[in-house]
Design goal:
The chain is an alpha/beta fold. 33% of the residues lie in helices and 22% in strands. The chain is globular, with a radius of gyration of 21 Å. The structure holds 6-O-phosphoryl inosine monophosphate and magnesium ion.
């Protein structure tokens, strides 16, 4: 009986989906509390691959109640599609197992249109995330409770006209002829989702108070946080632990605050990345780690592990356990580097002897090559937090549990 939160410690794509999937097997409630379909959480289960963008990863395991919290922004059309794909694969997505908070905001086709035009230089996922959060903060957003009571209708005109004005004056673009029809489809889809709409905070509160197993699933990563990340090259939500409070509406004492750390670093889109490798080693990491975006298919930028960045993530989120992922992708390097410090913004590296033995699928710590153990021990010692899980491959069974 515990309340657990899982947060990406880097720039997203740390392998949170797999860690959440493992933890979700025992969970009674799983909640996503921020972000939207910019996330791409890959879960491989019984030889089937699921890529979840909006629905919490607990849906795959079967028994949990899965909540999209009020801090999320929801694209009704994409969500409906995601539900359909899951159902076709035999996953139960009914109103007992899946709920959307009534105060979650909608992502409309207008938001996606704006995202493409105004945020291209940031390298966003073009899923309309930024513009949807903009509307929320400007107090012009449309929420699911407004769909439920039909009050959204009086907001649609200004939603459209504001965007038109902005786009015509800033980008000289015309209003797409198909947009009105797209908007109708979006609101129709939102209405079809009404059976899932609920006041979710009391459900969560009840679960916490009655000692149930509750799991908070973070999306994106700490360095993409709107306040604490590499601004302006960030996403538009609080990806860090504070977002769990505002995005769920429930105060909880997290027993486990798990930081998911990829064994090296990646980022998608623009923005600073001090340990980025623009050479053969970077390509090798991309190749070995299959580092292509699960939401956009873009090649991810790859680089060495960055300890100062992880220390910042620990300061913000108060991690008390770490899950180290994709360690098996580091086999085959003669030497590996880890940034341990910065000197005038330039990373200072420590070098490690690499290993060539394949370690994919290993579940016994004793079978890990010595050089790899040295690498992992170093991270653990530098960060001073136990690495309790080490993922050695994409499948659920490819995991080493330690210190527990
Ligand atoms: P998961 O949950 C990696 C990045 C985008 C872009 C920036 C802003 O799969 O780890 P946005 O569309 O959010 O306005 O884009 O944030 N980004 C992610 N990168 N994984 C994600 O999610 C991401 N979600 C957003 O590439 O640089
Ligand atoms: Mg991703």
């Amino acid at each position: 009986m515990s309340v657990t939160i899982v947060i990406g410690a880097q720039w997203g794509d740390e392998g949170k989906g797999k860690i959440v999937d493992i933890l979700a097997e025992k969970a009674d409630v799983v909640i996503r509390y921020q972000g939207g379909a910019n996330a791409g959480h890959t879960v491989i289960h019984d030889h089937e691959t699921y890529i979840l963008h909006a629905i919490p990863s607990g849906i795959i395991s079967g028994n949990a109640v899965n909540i999209i919290g009020g801090g999320c922004v929801v694209d009704p059309l994409l969500l409906k599609e995601e539900i359909k794909i899951l159902q076709e694969k035999g996953i139960t997505v009914d109103s007992a197992h899946f709920k959307i908070a009534d105060n979650a905001h909608l992502v409309t086709p207008i938001h996606k249109w704006l995202d493409k035009l105004q945020n291209a230089h940031l390298g966003t996922t073009q899923r309309g995330i930024g513009p949807a959060y903009e509307d929320k903060v400007r107090r012009t957003g449309i929420r699911f409770d407004m769909i439920a009571n039909d009050s959204y209708k009086r907001m649609v005109d200004s939603h459209v006209n504001e965007a038109k004005k902005r786009v015509i004056s800033l980008y000289g673009q015309n209003y797409p002829s198909e947009m009105d029809e797209e908007l109708c489809r979006c609101f129709d889809a939102a209405k079809e989702l009404l059976p899932y709409i609920a006041e979710s905070a009391p459900i969560l509160e009840e679960a916490v108070n009655s000692g149930k197993e509750v799991l908070f699933e973070g999306a994106q990563g700490t360095m993409l946080d709107i306040d604490h990340g590499t601004y302006p090259y960030v996403t538009s939500s609080n990806t860090t632990i504070g977002g769990a409070y505002t995005g769920s509406g429930v105060f909880v004492n997290f027993d486990r605050r798990i930081g998911v750390v990829k064994s090296y670093t990646t980022r998608v889109g623009e923005g600073p990345f001090p340990t980025e490798l623009l050479d053969k080693n970077g390509e090798k990491l991309r190749d070995k780690g299959r580092e292509f975006g699960s939401t956009t298919g873009r090649p991810r930028r790859c680089g060495w592990l960055d300890i100062p960045l992880l220390k910042k993530a620990i300061r913000i989120n108060g991690f008390n356990a770490l899950a180290l992922t994709k360690i098996s992708c580091l086999s085959g390097f003669d030497t590996l580097k880890v940034a341990v410090n910065y000197n005038n913004n330039v990373p200072v590296y420590k070098e490690f002897k690499g290993w060539h033995e394949p370690i994919e699928g290993i579940t016994d710590w004793k079978l890990i090559p010595e050089a790899c153990k040295t690498y992992i021990h170093f991270i653990e010692k530098e960060l001073n937090i136990p690495i309790n899980m080490i993922s050695t491959g994409p499948h659920r069974a490819n995991i080493i549990f330690r210190n527990s």
